[in-house]
Amino acid sequence: MCFTESHEELACCLSKGTNSLGLVHNYILREEESPMSAFEQLGLSQATLKAIHGLGFEEPTPIQTKAIPVALAGSDVIGQAPTGTGKTAAFGLPIIEQITVNSEHIQGLVVVPTRELAIQVAEELNKIGEYKRVRTLPIYGGQDMMRQIKLLKNRPQIVVGTPGRLMDHMRRRTIRLQNISIVVLDEADEMLNMGFIDDIKFILSDIPENKQTLLFSASITRAVENISNQFMREPILIKATPRNITVPSTEQHYIEVPERKKFDVLCNLLDLHSPEAAIVFGRTKRRVDEVNQALARRGYSAGALHGDLNQSQRNSVMNQFRAGAIEILVATDVAARGLDIEGVSHVYNFDIPQDPESYVHRIGRTGRAGRKGEAFTFITHRELDHLRIIERITQRKIKRHPIPTMTDALAGQQQITVERVLKAADEPVLSAYKSIAEGLLEQHDSVTLLAAALKLLTKEPNTAPVQLTEERETRAKKQRTHNPPPRRQRRPRKSHR
Ligand code: ADP
Ligand code: MG
Question: How many Å lie between the centroid of ligand 1 and the Cα of residue 368?
Answer without folding.
Answer: 29
